[in-house]
Amino acid sequence: MNLNVKEIRELMADLEKSTLRDVYIQDGEFSLHLSKNEQVQGGNTPAPVAPSAPAAQPVVNQAPAAQAAAPAVAAPAAAGKEIKAPMVGTVYLQPKPGEPNFKNVGDHVEKGETVAIIEAMKLMTEIKSDVSGTIAEVLVDNEEVVDFDKPLYRVTTD
């Protein structure tokens, strides 16, 4: 499935008129995630596209943000498994303000262990690791607004 920018904009307009909050389309390597969930980062623009949609041009806007979060990391150096955001929202890397982060670089993480919290629509969701290993890199900042499928941590597996 290939969608051009016009078709994606039409889908966005249809979603805006509907009562649906999220739409996720996946066909082979193409995926598209549209969401009406509010973002706190000051913009009125929704986060419409998941970064794994290679044919959709709006994805280009998200690639520089991912690179800015980890400027020293080149594509070949991306060894390990990523723990990704399962939803759009504000990520918290610590259980409460003033407390230490759930995980820092060099910490060991077990599968099922809480590594972050994502707030979406006043609902706090614990993000659990789907892998055991050592935290090699923290890819987001505390209180950063994240998109669906955005990598939060890079873990070197055991």
Structural notes for this entry:
- With 158 residues, the chain is an alpha+beta fold.
- It is built from two helices and ten strands, in the order αββαββββββββ.
- The protein has helices spanning 5-17, 62-69, and strands at residues 22-27, 30-35, 81-84, 89-92, 108-109, 114-120, 123-128, 133-138, 145-146, 151-157.
- The strands form three sheets. The protein has a four-stranded antiparallel beta sheet, with no helix packed on it.
- The chain is globular, with a radius of gyration of 16 Å.
- The protein starts with a helix and ends with a strand.
Task: Provide a brief overview of the structure.
The chain is α+β, with helices and mostly antiparallel strands.
SS-derived structural category: alpha+beta
Give, in spatial order, the strands making up the sheet with the most strands: 3-10-8-5
* Main sheet makeup: 4 strands, antiparallel
Low-confidence stretches: 40-77
Estimate the helix proportion, in percent: 10-25%
Based on DSSP secondary structure assignment, what is the total number of beta strands?
10
Give the helices and strands as they follow along the chain.
HEEHEEEEEEEE
Shape descriptor reads globular
Radius of gyration, CA atoms, in whole angstroms:
16 Å
DSSP helix count?
Answer: 2
